[in-house]
Amino acid sequence: MFVKVPSATNLGLETIGVDVEVNIASRGLPVFEIVGLPSKAIDESRERVRTAIINSGLEFPFRRIIVNLAPADLPKEGSFYDLPIAVGIVSQVLKIGLPKNSLFFGELSLDGTLRHTRGALLLALFAKEQGFENIFVPKQSANEAAIIKGVNVYPIENLYQLFSHLLGKTQVKPAEYQGQVRRGEEPEFDMKEVLGQEQAKRAMEIAAAGGHNLFMLGSPGSGKTMLARALPGILPALGEEESLEVTKIYSVSGQIPPEGSLMTICPFRSPHHTISQAGLIGGGSNPRPGEISLAHRGVLFLDEFSEFPRSVMEALRQPMEDGKLTISRSKAQVNYPARFILVASSNPCPCGYLYHPKKKCICTEREIRKYRKRVSGPILDRIDLHVEVPVVDIRELSQHQGLRDFLEPSNKIRERVIKAREIQRKRFSAEGIFTNAEMKNTHIKKYCPLSQEVKRILSQAGLSFNLSARAYFKMIKIARTIADLEGAEEVAVPHMAEALQYRSKEN
Predict the structure, then answer these.
(1) Which Pfam families match (predicted)?
(2) List of E strands, 270-311
(3) Average pLDDT for residues 55-77, to the nearest whole number?
(4) How far apart are CA 355 and CA 118, in angstroms?
(5) Residues near 89 by beta carbon (within 8 Å), at least 6 away in sequence
(6) Span 374-404, pLDDT tens digits
(7) CATH assignment of 191-417?
(8) Who's near 205: CB < 8 A, 6+ residues apart?
(9) Domain 2-166 class in CATH
(10) Beta bridge partner(s), residue 22
């Protein structure tokens, strides 16, 4: 007896069809083998499938069972083959035909129930592209798959329910999308809680409006971390296309919660400085997305930037420039998007008090130079906005405390950011990009014409600051964002003058 059960596997964000071929021989010693380059997790599914079938009150044939995962030359890993393997075995025992144009996908528990399984969204996309009408997935993953319209998503609780449906005894209705579910908590801080630091707040607004990277330099306790954690509160919600991009990444990494669905708020990732290169960039034998991909269309906050290993920081170069990365391994090569706003913060010296108005720095010049060199010039050159965050005097804090209710809250800043983003969305509607920071040089020439006076100011600043060609064009992008925040059609002298204030003369 032989049956073929359609399923799929995920290789990065690409989904590849896999046929689960199950053959039950009438002769030979009882054996249960899985072939087709399975991983250890798939090899262990033999015991899960056998026990789940028996505990579901169904018959498990003690015969020679061979399962082939085709194509056989493609390495496979994961637990989502449990369901198609079980379906292939039980359907032959019960002698029932499987529904046409249907995919089966899910991990089994020992009692026969189906567990939440990563990658359901990518499976639904694949099913729609390949013309499959039905997909059978765990109930907890059904809402995630139901985002994709045009495919019947059947939420299955356990094996017994599935075969009751296939035998026509009961009917499982296709899942209906239950709406967008906000993932994550509200921003930790509101901008009105940050007392003082008006220039840094303005830099945050520009970074949010144009998708620009930001570097903050300041002594301990000056408010760098608080500012960064307030940034998500001024970012607009993700658009439809952006939401799908982000949700696909979280789906393949298994970070969509049970009953979860489309991500509508910008991700905020803040890894510790002890993170490995694979953890930040992505990797593994079957490459998984790293923090930079999980921060796609959101914020990657690297606190204590100078404490990150040099090799980890240098690995950011290409993703920061291209907005994507390719991870190559001997078994596979995958592509992940990585278009994020980098917010990095650092102390000015090892002790942290180089520019402190009251505390004395105890570092030598050699120690300061060595500390600064931990962050290379090429990395700093890729960061658009550079801002110093000075220490706020205690007396000023006391004065500001009483004015807290009169300070501008995040929702007011967010309104300006949304308007600026809408201008950019309309401007780049035919270009396939969303923000000013994503512009290439051809886009700058097309969308950022400069008057002779603006060009003169930029050229003088370029000579004074020793700007690289990259930094030169970044100044134009920032000025364009400042103009968008004001609703101006052209980049004027005040816009460029403000943009140049955010460029460090030391870098």
Answers:
(1) ChlI, Mg_chelatase, Mg_chelatase_C
(2) 282-283, 288-289, 299-302
(3) 93
(4) 49
(5) 22, 24, 49, 53, 60, 61, 65
(6) 999 999 999 999 999 998 877 666 665 656 6
(7) 3.40.50.300
(8) 234, 413, 416, 417, 485
(9) alpha beta
(10) 3, 67
